[in-house]
């Protein structure tokens, strides 16, 4: 997939800046967060959990990972990846390694791919509300993003394996 | 939301005071001007007008959330970027002259706390003698006018906006229209309705236009009010008339739209001129005379026409979506309509089958959202 025009410009600027600076993580440009949004609980069968999506852009010259996410709107937040199960079907599960955002490139958190799972939601999330997320990266930086809540068209919990759902549903017994 | 490089997607806004250097096609409009796009911008080829019914129990707080969501969608769609969470985001593209114009129907001002926000003169139009209004083409709580150079752009934008409104509102009716505002070389022309008449010649421009339509103050600063009338045409009967009779009905020639008293399209009407037979050249009941500001105490409006065809139950119909923008419907529009209803020669071949009125807010700032002022205390 080609890098969108907008991020290509940002990557160019980052590369320019990196040329003349020392290769130390403290001078790496910060990770940029674009097009963040959160799936609504309106109409959901399970209103205790939902997902957050976004594009993470890394203008620097070293790989950086998203390692942690949190929000006051949820009791727990996990970073999820897509893996192929034994039966060949794709399921979502937590990735302790986080999400790698390659140097000079980007990572997409989209339905059917990486996402941030928000569990034990403290309140319903109606369309048009906003959720503030704190994201922590492997280079020691963190960033806050406010994401609007939107309608989500794909089936809910479509990608989660039965065992993963059981451990996530915790207090939902 | 999206960071940086807003310049890459810089929108150009054409206003009525800017002489177009290029034709009206392939534009990229912005929703962030003083006025919403789609009002005094040239009509592109395709328009879908969609009215929504607010779901039962929707309160003011929910309406505000819908405005936030729609503002985010409209910002992206009009810039040609994907709207957040749109699975078909690649359909979005700039340069399609897309405008999305939002309006509120009368029922919105009955929500708690909003009664005082009702614009001046925003009063339902009484049913006219010649009207045959159908509920299915009338009324509504929210309206979207979605216009673009092509149907794909319109259909996609409509789908995104309707989907994102799903938890707040359902579609009440959809009226689709088309207009040919360019010639074969892409140069702007006034355009013709399906009677073949040049339609829209006498629209006000510049300061006259601004005074006639824009609200200057309150939450609606930069906005206006809109009337939409669905006018069915009896083309079969119209086709049997002589050309001379057809031209006399309106008071303009069919060839170029010039008044019968003039030679060029934009010549003023000479309402006093008499013919060789001693009768008025522009007849007493000619449409152009009855609608003229000079015979209506200076009342003016900005008119947009959209042609439509509609097939239902084996019946094929044609007509005009008549859109008028005025600052006050009660003072500027309704009296003129009453006059036309009483006397217009054109009534014999036209029937209004739908009617609705709408309050259109101004444009919204980059980091704001539509009609924000409506929700302030």
Give a verbal description of the structure:
The complex is a heterodimer of chains A (173) and B (377). Chain A has two helices and ten strands; from the N terminus they run αββββββββββα. With 173 residues, chain A is mainly β. Chain A has a single domain, classed as Immunoglobulin-like (Sandwich). In chain A, strands 1, 2, 3, 4, 5, 6, 7, 8, 9 and 10 form a ten-stranded mixed beta sheet that branches. Chain A is globular. The model of chain A is unreliable at 1-25 and 161-173 (pLDDT under 50). Chain B is α+β, with helices and mostly antiparallel strands and 377 residues long. Chain B has one domain (28-116, 124-375). Chain B has a four-stranded antiparallel beta sheet with strand order 2-3-1-4, covered by helices on one side. In chain B, strands 6-7-5-8 form a four-stranded antiparallel beta sheet. In chain B, helix 1 (60-79) packs antiparallel against helix 2. The interface between A and B is medium-sized, with 26 and 24 residues.
Which short descriptors sum up this protein?
A: 173 residues, mainly beta, Immunoglobulin-like, 2 helices, globular, B: 377 residues, four-stranded antiparallel β-sheet, 8 strands
In short, what is this structure?
The complex is a heterodimer of chains A (173) and B (377). Chain A has 173 residues and is mostly beta strands. Chain A contains two helices and ten strands, in the order αββββββββββα.
Broad shape of chain A: globular
Output the strand order for the largest sheet of chain B.
Answer: 2-3-1-4
Q: How many helices of chain B?
A: 7
- Which structural category fits the helices and strands of chain B? alpha+beta
- The CATH homologous superfamily of chain A: PCu(A)C copper chaperone
Give the overall shape of chain B, derived from the CA principal axes.
globular
* Approximate helicity band of chain B: 10-25%
Query: For the terminal residues of chain B, how far apart are their CA atoms?
Result: 27 Å
Instruction: Give the SSE order of chain B as H and E letters.
Output: EHEEHEHEHHHEEHE
% residues in beta strands of chain B: 15-25%
| CATH topology label of chain A | Immunoglobulin-like
**Roughly how many Å apart are the termini of chain A?**
41 Å
Q: Largest sheet of chain A, described in full?
A: 10 strands, mixed
| Largest interface between protein chains, with number of residues from each side | A-B, 26 and 24 residues
> What is the C-level CATH assignment of chain A?
Mainly Beta
What multimeric state do the chains show? heterodimer
Query: Could you tell me the number of beta strands of chain B?
Result: 8
Radius of gyration of chain B: 21 Å
Low-pLDDT stretches of chain B are 1-17
């Amino acid at each position: 997939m080609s890098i969108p025009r907008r991020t290509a410009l940002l990557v160019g600027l980052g590369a320019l800046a990196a040329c003349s600076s020392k290769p130390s993580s403290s001078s790496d440009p910060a990770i940029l967060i674009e097009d963040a949004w959160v799936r609504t609980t309106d109409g959901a069968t399970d209103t205790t959990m939902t997902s957050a999506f976004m594009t993470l852009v890394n203008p620097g010259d070293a790989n950086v990972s998203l390692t942690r996410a949190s929000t006051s709107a949820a009791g727990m937040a996990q970073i999820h990846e897509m893996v192929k199960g034994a039966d060949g079907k794709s399921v979502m599960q937590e990735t302790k390694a986080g999400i790698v955002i390659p140097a000079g490139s980007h990572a997409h958190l989209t339905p059917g791919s990486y996402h941030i799972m928000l569990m034990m939601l403290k309140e319903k999330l109606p369309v048009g509300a906003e959720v503030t997320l704190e994201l922590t990266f492997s280079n020691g930086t963190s960033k806050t993003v406010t994401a609007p809540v939107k309608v989500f068209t794909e089936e809910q919990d479509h990608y989660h394996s039965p065992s993963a759902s059981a451990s996530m549903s915790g207090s939902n017994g | 939301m999206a960071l940086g490089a807003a310049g890459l997607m810089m929108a150009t806004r054409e206003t009525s005071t800017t002489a177009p250097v290029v034709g009206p096609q392939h534009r990229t409009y912005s929703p962030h001007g003083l006025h919403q796009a789609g009002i005094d911008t040239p009509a592109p080829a395709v328009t879908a007008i969609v009215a929504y019914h607010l779901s039962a129990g929707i309160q003011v707080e929910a309406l505000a959330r819908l405005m936030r969501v729609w503002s985010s969608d409209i910002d992206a769609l009009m810039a040609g970027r994907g709207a957040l969470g749109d699975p078909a985001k690649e359909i979005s593209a700039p340069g399609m002259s897309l405008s999305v114009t939002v309006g509120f129907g009368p029922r919105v001002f009955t929500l708690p706390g909003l009664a005082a926000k009702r614009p001046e003169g925003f009063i339902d139009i009484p049913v006219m003698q010649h009207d045959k209004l159908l509920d299915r083409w009338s009324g509504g709580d929210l309206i979207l006018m979605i216009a673009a150079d092509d149907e794909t752009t319109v259909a996609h934008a409509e789908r995104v906006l309707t989907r994102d409104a799903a938890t707040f509102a359902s579609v009440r009716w959809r009226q689709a229209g088309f207009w040919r505002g360019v010639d074969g070389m892409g140069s702007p022309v006034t355009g013709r309705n399906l009677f073949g008449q040049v339609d829209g010649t006498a629209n006000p421009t510049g300061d006259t236009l601004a005074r006639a339509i824009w609200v200057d103050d309150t939450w609606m600063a930069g906005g206006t009010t809109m009337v939409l009338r669905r006018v069915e045409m009896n083309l079969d009967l119209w086709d049997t008339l002589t050309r001379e009779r057809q031209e006399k009905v309106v008071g303009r020639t069919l060839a170029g739209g010039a008044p019968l008293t003039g030679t060029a399209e934009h010549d003023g009407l000479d309402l006093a001129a008499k013919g060789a037979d001693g009768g008025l050249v522009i007849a007493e009941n000619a449409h152009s005379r009855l609608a003229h500001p000079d015979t209506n105490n200076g009342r003016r409006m900005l008119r947009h026409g959209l042609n439509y065809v509609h097939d239902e139950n084996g019946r094929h119909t044609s007509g005009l979506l008549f859109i008028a923008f005025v600052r006050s419907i009660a003072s500027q529009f309704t009296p003129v309509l009453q006059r036309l209803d009483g006397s217009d020669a054109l009534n014999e071949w036209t029937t209004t089958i739908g009617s609705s009125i709408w309050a259109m807010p101004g444009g919204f700032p980059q980091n704001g959202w539509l009609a924000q002022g409506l929700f302030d205390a």
